[in-house]
């Protein structure tokens, strides 16, 4: 099985408008699918930097003198590019999806399809797991996580049930959690479970905090005329990307300079989002929720 099938592969590479001698950044290396496509477009003097915090990504490193891998979260792109003597790049690509490999590897605990420990860590050196969240968070904190990150409709009653159940027995495995979830399912079971697991995964990995730091760093790292291409998979991510491209901040707060001119650090290439074709979605069901946005950095 492939580690990860690059989603919107052709569209994302075209969106970068790659220059042969340019410097590019793949912020979410994963299986290296997008990185290989970028390298195919680069000339001998081009350079590609890639980031990924997951140990499994180390299996997919590319033997190419133009390629430099950083085994770190993409929230640190600014710091590590500086270590390589790079201040700005010509293009940045980020595919925010969880890789097929991570979802299909039972022991990682990302999927409710398997029995395993409730882990869900992207970086397995981190201490906090999904089991930690379920064991230590208050009912109020659990409700916020489930409601905000998973849009779980009965987040309050589920959070209260989790707190009640953990008084009697530990919630350590996916089976333990499913035993709590199944009686509370609202609507389609698959969708409901996916929402709960998404919420826990986002919290465990501080995905929203990392995305905010990454997006804010692109304002400094991307040179004027450079392109930012982001593929997101749920509304929280897409809203942050949309806000950054429109206003220069993830909150979407419109700011103006001393003369009242609205600050717009990006020009949006496409008015709306770019989504996968019917053919791609038929071949890869995990592409169904993908949305791609493109912005060109404007000289400030």
Describe this structure in words.
The chain is α/β, with parallel strands linked by helices. Helix 6 crosses helix 7 (155-166) and helix 10 (207-221) runs parallel beside helix 11 (235-247). The chain is globular, with a radius of gyration of 20 Å. The mean pLDDT is 92. It folds into two domains: 9-100 and 209-297, 3-Layer(aba) Sandwich (Rossmann fold), CATH 3.40.50.150; 127-204, Orthogonal Bundle (DNA polymerase, domain 1), CATH 1.10.150.170. It has twelve helices and seven strands. Strand 1 (23-26), helix 2 and strand 2 (47-51) form a beta-alpha-beta unit. Helices cover 39% and strands 14% of the residues. A seven-stranded mixed β-sheet has the order 3-2-1-4-5-7-6, sandwiched between helices.
Please describe the structure with a list of short key phrases separated by commas or semicolons.
12 helices; 7-stranded mixed beta sheet; 300 residues; globular; single chain; Rossmann fold; alpha/beta; 39% helix; DNA polymerase, domain 1; 2 domains
Summarize the structure.
This protein is α/β, with parallel strands linked by helices and 300 residues long.
């Amino acid at each position: 099985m492939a580690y990860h099938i690059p989603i919107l592969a052709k569209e994302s590479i075209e969106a970068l408008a790659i220059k042969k001698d340019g410097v590019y950044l793949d912020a979410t290396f994963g299986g290296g699918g997008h990185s290989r496509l970028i390298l195919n477009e680069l000339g001998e003097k081009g350079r590609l930097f890639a980031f990924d915090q997951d140990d499994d990504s180390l299996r997919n490193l590319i033997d190419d003198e133009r390629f430099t891998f950083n085994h770190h979260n993409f929230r640190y792109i600014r710091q590590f590019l500086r270590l390589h003597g790079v201040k700005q790049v010509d293009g940045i690509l980020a595919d925010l999806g969880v890789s097929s490999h991570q979802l299909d590897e039972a022991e990682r605990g990302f999927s409710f399809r398997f029995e395993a420990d409730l882990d869900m860590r992207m970086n397995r050196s981190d201490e906090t797991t999904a089991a930690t969240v379920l064991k230590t968070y208050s009912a109020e904190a659990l409700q916020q996580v489930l409601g905000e990150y998973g849009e779980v409709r009965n987040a309050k009653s589920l959070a209260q049930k989790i707190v009640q159940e953990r008084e009697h027995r530990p919630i350590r495995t996916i089976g333990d959690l499913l035993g709590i979830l199944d009686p509370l399912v609202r609507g389609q079971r698959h969708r409901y479970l996916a929402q709960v697991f998404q919420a826990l995964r986002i919290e465990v990995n501080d995905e929203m905090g990392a995305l905010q730091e990454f997006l804010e760093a692109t304002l400094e790292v991307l040179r004027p005329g450079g392109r930012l291409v982001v593929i997101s998979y749920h509304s929280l991510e897409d809203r942050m990307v949309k806000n950054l491209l429109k206003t220069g901040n993830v909150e979407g707060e419109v700011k103006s300079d001393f003369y009242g001119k609205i600050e717009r650090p990006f020009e949006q290439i496409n008015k709306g989002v770019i989504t996968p074709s019917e053919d791609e979605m038929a071949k890869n069901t995990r592409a169904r929720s993908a949305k791609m946005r493109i912005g060109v950095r404007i000289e400030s």
